[in-house]
Specification:
Elements: E1 2-6, E2 16-19, E3 29-38, H1 41-48, E4 59-60, E5 65-72, E6 84-87, E7 102-106, E8 111-112, H2 119-139, E9 147-151, H3 156-167, E10 171-176, H4 181-187, E11 191-194, H5 200-207, E12 212-217, H6 224-229, E13 231-239, H7 251-255, E14 260-263, H8 271-286, E15 295-299, H9 303-311, E16 319-323
Parallel strand pairs: 9-10, 9-12, 10-11, 12-13, 13-14, 15-16
Antiparallel strand pairs: 1-2, 1-4, 3-5, 3-7, 3-16, 5-6, 6-8
Helix pairs in contact: 2-3, 2-8
Amino acid sequence: MWAAYIQELGSPDVIRYGELPAPRPGPTDVLVDVLATAVNPVDTFVRSGVFRTALAFPFVIGRDLVGTVTETGPGVTGFRAGDRVWCNSLGHEGRQGAAAAQAVVAADRLYPLPDGVDPDLAAAALHPAATAYLALFVHGRLRLGETVLVAGAAGNVGSALVAFAARAGARVLATAAARDAGYCAESGATEVFDYRDPELTGRLRRAAPAGADLYLDTAGVNDLETAVGLLARRGRLVLMAGAGTRPVLPAGPLYMNDRSVVGFVISHATTGELAEAAAAVNDLLAQGLLRPRSVDVLPLSAAAAAHTRMEKGELRGRRVVLRTDAS
């Protein structure tokens, strides 16, 4: 089969596009004919070695796929040949990745794709949306009626956070570029604030005098001095980006107000958590409520170029989907 793979950790230049032996499913696995896979920041972290995880070379890159079941192991129930499916947890902890003509997926990591959902749109939305769901409800412990502050609300994860939080009955405050205010409001934000506004902190405090119950930082700035100060008593701050940041932790305001700071990456989610997120993601997909604003569809052979663009910061607000049937 044709695949995008690496033989060693390194820059995007180590990505190769060529033929590898086709995989075979085990007793509880499903063999999927891959149609589309997405390019995520975490894919670049794994490829470069920033995010250390078990790899077997040659290693097929990529986390997400949308495709069709072609074969199931003898212990698999619930899937049959021809089913449209998706997965967003390959390429980690010894699992080969998704950027190939075929992939083997453990049955408990595979989910049906709702009827009528465009595969490119789904591939683009899956990872950010599942990340948003788990950040809100598992790590953020969101409850009905709370005030949620989303930093970076116009991004891929940020817009999904806004959509899920608003749908759950939260009051959503969003920060984004001024030009993205309309998009954030359409996603469900109650109020949108320009993140470049020099008076931003004051405006947020006036908008939520008692503080935010939940603050989700997708922007990766991680200014804890400011963020912790914007939390309500027993407020929670979930950090989701900014691997290289080393912020100062304001311990006093944190512990004197029962506040908490939690780090989260979806790579460590359990299969049960992923399945819970998948059900919620499928619900929004089926209703047309998850729609990335900009999706570039490229052939699988463009994987190295896509990784390069992502590391150069050229894909902010954009998603890249790689198709196995494109040339």
